[in-house]
TrEMBL record:
Family: Belongs to the short-chain dehydrogenases/reductases (SDR) family.
Pfam family of the protein (one): adh_short
Transmembrane segments: none
InterPro entries in the record: KR_dom, NAD(P)-bd_dom_sf, Sc_DH/Rdtase_CS, SDR, SDR_fam
SMART domains: PKS_KR (SM00822)
Species the sequence originates in: Dyadobacter sediminis
Protein name according to UniProt: SDR family oxidoreductase
Superkingdom classification of source: Bacteria
Any one GO BP annotation for this protein: monocarboxylic acid metabolic process
Ketoreductase domain segment(s): 6-191
Amino acid sequence: MADQNKIALITGGSKGIGYGVAEVLIRQGISVAITSRSQESADEAAASLNKIREGAAIGIQSDVRNLESQQKAVDAVIAKWGRLDYLIANAGVGHFAPVSELTAEQWHETIDINLTGVFFSAKAAIKALTETKGYFITISSLAGTNFFAGGSAYNASKFGVVGFSQAMMMDVRDAGIKVTTIMPGSVATEFNNHQPSEKDAWKIQPEDIGQIVADLIKMPARTLPSKVEVRPTMPAK
C-alpha cells in the first residue's frame, strides 16, 4: 500500500466524522490513533477498526481542552509507531441557543473544545509534524462562514477554527507542514444528540469526509487546498 507506515492521529475519533475518517485512512494503509474523553469508547472504536486491518488502530483517552492531555496523546503515538504524519483535529461539540439563554458553561465548553482544542492539538503535534513534513487538518463547518440565530457559540468557535487554520497554514508552510480546514454542511452523525437514520441518506456521510481527507493527503506536495467547503449535493426540501 502506498501509504503504509504513515501514521494519523484523529481527535474525537470514536464516532461520527472522526470514525469515518479513521475507516477510510485504515483502508488506505495508514495506521490510526483515535482519541476520546472515554478510554472505553476509544478502545471499543479501535477494536472495531482493527477488524478492517488487524493492528491498524489504537484508542487513547484524551481531552482536547487540556494541553498536557493532548501532548500525552501525541507522545503515545510516537511511542507506538515512532512518527506522526497526519493530525485530524475533529473533536467538537454544539450548544445552540439565543445569547439570552446560552449559559456561561455552554459557551466555555463550545469554545474550549471546538477552538482551544484545535490550538492545543497543533501545539502538541507541531514538532512531530515538522519532522515528517506532515499534514494538520481541522474539521470546521459551513457555520464557520455562515452565521445563524442560536449559533453564537458554535459560529464563534467555527469562525475561529477557519481563521486559526488559515493563519497556521502561513506560519508552518516553510517547515513543510500543510494545513487545511474542511468545512462540511449537514453530516449524518450523532452530533447534538441526533440519531442517524435512513432519513439522513441525503446528508454527507462520515466516510465522505474521510475520502476528502484521503484525497488531500495525496495531493502533490506543491499544491495545497487550504480551505474545502463541502455541501450535500441535493439537500432535503
